[in-house]
Amino acid sequence: MSQQRAILLLADGTSYEGKAAGKIGTTTGEICFNTGMTGYQEVFTDPSYFGQLLVTTNAHIGNYGTANADTESAGVKIAGLICKNFTVPFSRQLADASIQDYLETEGLVGISDVDTRAIVRHIRTKGAMNGVISSEEFDLKKLKKILDKAPDMDGLELSSKVTTDKAYTLGEESAKHRVAVLDLGTKQNILRNFLKRDCFVKVFPAKAGMDEIMSFKPDGLFISNGPGDPGAMDYAVDTAKGMLEQGKPLFGICLGHQILARAVGIPTYKMHHGHRGINHPVKNLITGKSEITSQNHGFGVSPEAIAANTDVVEVTHRNLNDDTIEGIRVVGKPAFSVQYHPEASPGPHDAAYLFDQFVDLIAERK
Predict the structure, then answer these.
(1) Per-residue pLDDT reduced to its tens digit, 267-292
(2) Cα–Cα distance list, 199 to 15, 44, 144, 179, 358 (Å)
(3) Domain 159-365 has what CATH class?
(4) Is the entire prediction scored with pTM above 0.90?
(5) Which residues does the annotation place in the binding site for L-glutamine?
(6) What does the angle CA 159 – CA 362 – CA 256 come to, to the nearest 5 degrees?
(7) Which of these, 134, 232, 215, 153, lies nearest to 180 by C-alpha position?
(8) Structural contact between residues 197 and 227, judged by C-beta atoms closer than 8 angstroms
(9) How far apart, in whole angstroms, are the C-alpha atoms of residue 227 and residue 224?
(10) Which of 109, 132, 269, 276 is most deeply packed, by most CB within 10 A?
(11) What does the buried/exposed string (b/e) look like for 277-287 if buried means 16 or more CB atoms within 10 Å of the residue's CB?
């Protein structure tokens, strides 16, 4: 299998030939890249990556195997994997399986032994675009026809494909705080962070109504991360508006940040190629301190709209690489959000204080 041929074809006609990784097959999605040096399994299972072909810039993928404890959801969520060195033998004693066995079990198609640096430079220059990986079809004209049928991420609603089917609870009912989570594609480490802070959590499907959410009698409300275009999620925006009307502490992460912004009239936009990695510098404008953050998003909140609506939204965090909006709070409301991931797993943990900030806000208002 390690010698099986594989091809990556991009929407602009650029192609790369390498070797098959994971399941033999064909897959499509929007190509993106992550600059993290570790945490590949956490990334693979992050629901925010649903529908995307992931390029890993770290040269070695698979060297420490896979472990059930490292998953962020019920299974792999990326649409395909693109890497340089696909290392099947692993050295970690706590690992449960090799990366090849894991990806075959999960049914993920991938390609290795390609020049990932060249691919990343191409995306950074040309922007995000759809691609197709195949280890069974090598005719570029046929692959182009398959690629033409792949949906564009711009305008695509995906949270309903990764959300929970029905509401469920976590933690002890006797906990100090009750937090309602709107699951747009939540990561498990977000929920673990709430549990660590003495919260009883109820996770609701993405399209749950406010009556159902408020029947839990929550002390605080949370809107999770997730995949897809926030501009195609009016149902979630309406829920966020309903949450704001409750006057309870409200916290949003990543897609939740974008949904909160749209709920107060701030539009979102599709980025040229997005931010994905665990080394993104962000400045907290309230404290003046900077933090290294974990990020994964291809959409952003409009800085022009925020600048024109300072009576509605205050910027709290900015990206030090490109000055994009990384955090906001709603004026006159106990509501705030960040574009990045304070629950970062495996790290960094510079932004974990945001969970404390949310819980403290709950405690102040009880």
Answers:
(1) 999 999 999 999 999 999 999 999 99
(2) 49, 27, 50, 6, 11
(3) alpha beta
(4) yes
(5) 48, 226, 228, 255, 258, 296, 298-299
(6) 20
(7) 215
(8) no
(9) 10
(10) 132
(11) bbebebbbeee
Angle at 39 (CA atoms; ends 54, 30), nearest 5 degrees: 15
What is the identity of the amino acid at 94?
L
Which residues have a Cβ under 8 Å from the Cβ of 71 and sit 6 or more positions away?
Answer: 41, 42, 45, 188
Tokens in use for 265?
A: 């009239």
Provide the angle, in degrees to the nearest 10, between the axes of the packed helices 188-196 and 353-365: 50
58's tokens: 């770290």
Q: Just list the catalytic residues.
A: 254, 341, 343
Question: pLDDT by residue (tens digit) across 87-98?
Answer: 999 989 999 999
Which residues make up each annotated binding site?
Answer: 48, 226, 228, 255, 258, 296, 298-299
List the chain domain ranges.
5-148, 159-365
3-state secondary structure of 1: coil
Question: Cβ–Cβ contacts within 10 Å for residue 307, how many?
Answer: 11
| Domain pair 5-148 / 159-365, same fold | no
Q: How confident is the model at residue 1 (pLDDT cuts 50, 70, 90)?
A: very low
